[in-house]
Amino acid sequence: TMEDPNWMDRLRNITSDNSDEGVVITQAEALDILYPLPKIKNHPTNGTLDVELVQHFISRWNNTQRLHKDGITRREEVADGEDPNFVTMEEWEAARDQVLINSKNQSINFYDEVVSAQANFKEAMAKDKAGTCVKVRVRIEQEFSLARTAFLGSLQLQNDGDTPLTRISVKLKIWQQDDVTKTDVSGSLFVIGDPDPVFPGGANGSGIVGAKSSGTSQWLFMALKDAAYEDTVYEVGGEISYYVD
User: Fold this and answer.
1) Which phi and psi (to 5°) does residue 113 adopt?
2) Is residue 153 within a helix (H) or strand (E), and if so which, with residue range?
């Protein structure tokens, strides 16, 4: 249950039409809802939501505003390399309908749903760890790079389970280290080559790593001249998804 109504007031203020960028949450505005974090009653993380969950919300919020403005309302319309973390029109309409149902039943409680979703996520992760053991190793070949100088990054998946990993998908992201919103700049400030070597089947949703085996994909990165007019630190990350049938 929410114990911090002031947090919701801060969120409404920074997403109002009168705020700096309107409904979009700027990096400066993000600090206002990240510090302090919203307080939640009977929550396991010291009475506040996890910072990662709020950062995920900010990224999802901004992506939704940007993509909907560009007329993109379905997941399959998102271009390769774009962050697919946004609310589709179908999801929005389903949530709206559920809110209407809950409001009629007088059972709506948004924050209980957030906490419940987080608990379900952690439970699912725990089950996954108990079933198939997958080790992920990421390596960036150098820590310092000049503009227009290429460097390598590799990703290794080691599958110790008895079941193959299928439909492997990797989406890379690069963001400035001091950017609390972790806005992806990989497409605007960097060039990323196609992975070579790559998992059997690729890394775009068709990759495979067999049981009791491992697979590696490697990318070539190059920073463009606009990536840093002065010394700038970037972090490289992304999202990995796979299925265990």
Assistant:
1) -65, -40
2) strand 150-159
